[in-house]
Design a protein that fits this description.
The protein is an alpha+beta fold. It contains 15 helices and 11 strands. The model has no long low-confidence stretch (mean pLDDT 93).
Length: 450
């Protein structure tokens, strides 16, 4: 077997593999003999069919299978042994591959196009300038956070009378044309409705100020303007709702309203734990200022990472085998259209160039991610998930258990390790360039991202 490589420019190459008869003949003969022993062919005793017949039946398939196996193994071994760094995967060469005749050929030559990873030198210094945008924390942001907390930590309480924000539970009874309860009319007990969801203002106003056991008379179809909604409200069929044209008594049985949580020590303990040092609203607002600033810093860091990527990709612009890569994308993504590949190709090339640059930074600076770093990041993600559901003080063991679940998923674990490596790579660049700090409002920051 003979393997050769011809470089075409800096980032393309053709690898040729010549497989000769002596490379495969013995293995193919053994497989044919094994097939003969196990075969049962009409007219011959088991295992006694002539080898000529066996070759005629399966010889070509056995040969092709063995050649392809040798081809795959030796191509990969060559790339590893010769330390050839490739992009994508080898593709059968459109220009150099000779036609194969499986019936007549004894020696087989295969040619593969490969894309070579370029050599990248990452040289940055104080002459390279990058902006770092710090987003201002405003009173409005803190007010919004306080409002979210008191709403999420609030609860429904019994009320003496109906207000617009109230939920009212009561019983419906259908009335006839004289305003009397129909003996065979529609009845629905324990129906819960939201006063503010009533669309007719006049009917909505009838509810305001009502107390338990008081009655409101109204037409639910007029109240809601939606017969489908009325069918669910009265627990009747859509057909009944479509023909409904009656007023109803609604007897109030229960009134509840949502009460926001009070800003007191009990609330602070629920959010931050029994040992919290927060005792006053001012101290809460200071704490929220810190938390919002930390969250905004994450946005600033993401923006800085993107700016770092763009600056390095533009400055270094590693040469890539673009035609080969586009062909590789087409051949390995049969369900993706040519138009979609063309549309996404520039983004793909930018990401690939950034990946190559990062790999150099990681290698040159011996960057590593320790397990405890990944675990800490997983815990932050777990806590953020709980926060979204208004759970601000989940027990440590619960957070850690959630973090372990995250890391138990191979794709999530890889994503976290890659993120941490990227963060460290960006920090290395950050330490070498000239940083220009700029304070901006959230609106200005979001405008820049558009």
């Amino acid at each position: 077997m003979n393997i050769t490589r011809e470089n075409i420019g800096n980032v393309n190459a053709v690898i040729k593999i010549l497989i000769e008869k002596q490379d495969y003949d013995k293995t193919v003969e053994e497989k044919l003999k094994d097939y003969r022993q196990k075969s049962s062919i009409p007219g011959f005793r088991p295992g006694k069919a002539p080898m000529g017949l066996i070759r005629k039946r399966v010889g070509k398939a056995v040969l092709a299978e063995e050649i392809n196996k040798m081809l795959s193994q030796n191509l990969m071994r060559y790339l590893v042994d010769e330390k050839v760094q490739i992009l994508g995967e080898p593709l059968s060469s459109t220009e150099h591959q000779k036609e194969i005749n499986w019936d007549a050929d004894e020696n087989f030559e295969f040619a593969f196009d490969v894309g070579l990873a370029p050599k990248v030198e990452v040289a940055v210094d104080e002459n390279d300038k990058l902006n770092y945008y710090t987003i201002k924390v405003t009173d409005e942001m803190i007010n919004q956070q306080v409002e979210m907390i008191v709403s999420q930590m609030g609860q429904s309480v019994e009320a003496e009378e109906v207000v617009e924000e109230a939920l009212v539970r009561g019983d419906f009874e259908e009335l006839d044309d004289q305003g009397q309860v129909k003996d065979d009319g529609i009845r629905a007990e324990g129906v819960l409705l939201s006063v503010k969801m009533i669309k007719d203002e006049e009917i909505k106003n009838q509810f305001i100020g009502k107390k338990k056991e008081e009655t409101i008379v109204f037409d639910p179809v007029v109240a809601y303007g939606d017969r489908h909604e009325v069918s669910h409200l009265l627990k009747i069929s859509h057909e009944q709702a479509d023909n409904l044209n009656s007023s109803f008594n609604f007897v109030v049985k229960e009134i509840t309203r949502f009460e926001k949580a009070e800003l007191n020590e009990d609330l602070f303990k629920k959010i931050y734990g029994e040992d919290t040092e927060i005792k006053t609203e001012e101290e809460l607002r200071n704490k929220l200022n810190e938390e919002i600033a930390a969250n905004l810093k994450q946005a600033s860091d993401r923006r800085f990472a993107t700016d770092t990527r763009d600056m390095l990709v533009e400055k270094l612009k590693p040469e890539l085998p673009e035609a080969f890569l586009k062909r590789w994308l087409r051949e390995t993504n049969q369900d993706v259209t040519e138009e979609q590949i063309d549309k996404d190709f520039e983004g793909f090339m930018t990401d690939l160039r950034w990946q190559l640059i990062k790999e150099v930074v990681i290698k040159e600076n011996d960057l590593k991610v320790e397990d405890d770093e990944a675990f800490d990041l997983a815990k932050k993600l777990a806590q953020a998930q709980y926060n979204q559901y208004g759970i601000y003080n989940a027990p440590d063991e619960q957070i850690e258990s959630f973090a372990k679940i995250i890391l138990d998923k191979p794709e999530e674990k890889e994503r976290l390790y890659n993120k941490l490596l990227e963060d460290k790579s960006v920090e290395v660049i950050k330490s070498k360039v000239t940083l220009e700090n700029k304070e901006v409002t959230r609106e200005e920051f979001e405008e820049m991202a558009r």
